[in-house]
Design brief:
This protein is an alpha/beta fold. The chain is 44% helix and 13% strand. The protein has two domains: 137 residues, Aspartate Aminotransferase, domain 1, CATH 3.90.1150; 224 residues, Type I PLP-dependent aspartate aminotransferase-like (Major domain) (Aspartate Aminotransferase, domain 2, 3-Layer(aba) Sandwich), CATH 3.40.640.10. It has 14 helices and twelve strands. The strands form three sheets. Strands 2-8-7-6-5-3-4 form a seven-stranded mixed beta sheet, sandwiched between helices. It has a three-stranded antiparallel beta sheet with strand order 9-12-11. The chain is globular and about 60 Å long.
């Protein structure tokens, strides 16, 4: 076999979302697209704000020397300053241009952060449910991912994280608002986590960094505030993208911010700039850097996602599903009726309703619903959700 054994294993572990997406394509061919209700993939469907199209058009028409030439590895200084100024105001930290690196999306930023700090054999901790690709990101840089369950309400279990830390621990990946649960970790939890990490860093004799993965920071409801890890824990590297807040995931544009008071911050930033080149992304896309630099604080109409969340949440709870009402993202993570997430997803698929088993996120017994879909998909799916629920009670 030409393909590496490691990649075969990775393909098997990462296949659930893709498998359901591909199943959806087949079912749509068989039954017609209007008869299949596909909640499998988190592809934002709310249109980008008008300001995005205006900025894009103006940027394309702009005439300037060397417009499409090479740039500094960290990105354009003017764009980085716009990001630094905005995040400083938003999160209550004092950032300069030197703390910001433009990246190929949040996934690129997380990889750059891990490449910068990981030695072979190091471990990174994250809490389940989690975004499955974190496992592969850690492996990319010679380490491994250690999984720690959250509490029943999906809040971080700080005591469990503490128990998982050992001499190999170099970082935690924290994803809030969380994919797949929609949980926003409260300020009190973030402060407890920060205090614990300070103590454990002293105990094991190395700095434990936080990599705060924040692509959903702007997708929150009812005035919920996402606490700043940059502000609460100085050894933080924060990653974000414009994929969700501007609905431009295909443009692969985001940033990595180095906490200005992080341990060895100057070398950390310099190392991350180097890694942003050698890891394979080379630079964040030039055109999109210029566009998003003009759009700090702009975002899609989140009320559209809120209406979708509310419609699904009310419909599912009325049927009898048990689920946490998410504070952010565009996902629901209900308990699987009967406790078997694979069986629940199969029962729903029989009803032409496509979801993803919680096993794919490290949490068997649940399943994920991605509600960045047309309203007709939500409305049309309720009968299938109800029939599957009844079948799973038998």
């Amino acid at each position: 076999m030409a393909i590496a054994d490691k990649i075969v294993g990775m393909m098997e572990r990462s296949s659930w979302i893709r498998k359901m997406f591909e199943n959806g394509a087949k079912l749509k061919q068989q039954h017609g697209a209007d008869k299949v209700f596909d909640f499998s993939i988190g592809n934002p469907n709310v249109p980008p704000p008008k300001e995005f199209f205006d900025a894009l058009e103006e940027t394309v028409k702009l005439e300037e020397p060397n417009k499409h030439g090479y740039m500094p590895n960290a990105g354009y200084p003017a764009v980085r300053k716009e990001v630094a100024d905005y995040v400083s105001r938003e999160q209550g930290v004092e950032l300069g241009v030197e703390h910001v690196i433009m990246t190929a999306g949040a996934g690129g930023a997380v990889n750059v952060a891990l490449k910068t700090i990981m030695n072979p054999g190091d471990t990174v901790i994250t809490s389940t449910p989690f975004f499955v690709e974190y496992q592969f990101y850690a492996d990319n840089h010679g380490g491994s991912l250690k999984l720690v369950p959250t509490k029943e309400d999906f809040d971080l279990d700080v005591a469990a994280i503490e128990a998982a830390i050992d001499a190999t621990t170099c970082a935690l990946i924290i994803n809030s608002p969380n994919n797949p649960t929609g949980r926003v970790y409260p300020e009190s939890t973030v402060r407890d986590l920060a205090a614990m990490l300070e103590e454990k860093s002293r105990e094991i004799g190395r700095t434990i960094y936080i990599v705060s993965d924040e692509p959903y920071r702007k997708i929150v409801y009812e005035g919920v505030k996402v606490p700043s890890l940059l502000k609460n824990y100085k050894h933080t590297m924060a990653s974000a993208s414009y994929s969700k807040e501007l609905s431009i995931p295909g443009e692969r544009i985001g940033w990595l911010i180095i906490g200005p008071e992080a341990d060895d911050a100057e070398n950390l930033a310099a190392g991350a700039v180097l890694c942003n080149r050698i890891i394979g992304f080379v630079n964040a896309p030039a055109l999109m850097q210029r566009v998003v630099g003009r759009l700090q604080g702009k975002q899609v109409d989140v009320e559209i996602y809120k209406r979708k969340r509310d419609a699904l949440y009310e419909g599912l709870t009325k049927i009898g599903y048990e689920l946490y009402k998410p504070e952010g993202t565009f996902y629901l993570f209900p308990k699987a009726p009967g406790g078997n997430d694979i069986r629940a997803v199969e029962a729903l698929t029989d009803e032409l309703v496509l979801t993803v088993p919680g096993k794919g996120f490290g949490s068997p017994g649940y399943f994920r619903i991605s509600y960045c879909v047309e309203d007709r998909v939500i409305e049309g799916s309720m009968g299938g959700f109800e029939r599957a629920f009844k079948k799973l009670q038998e």
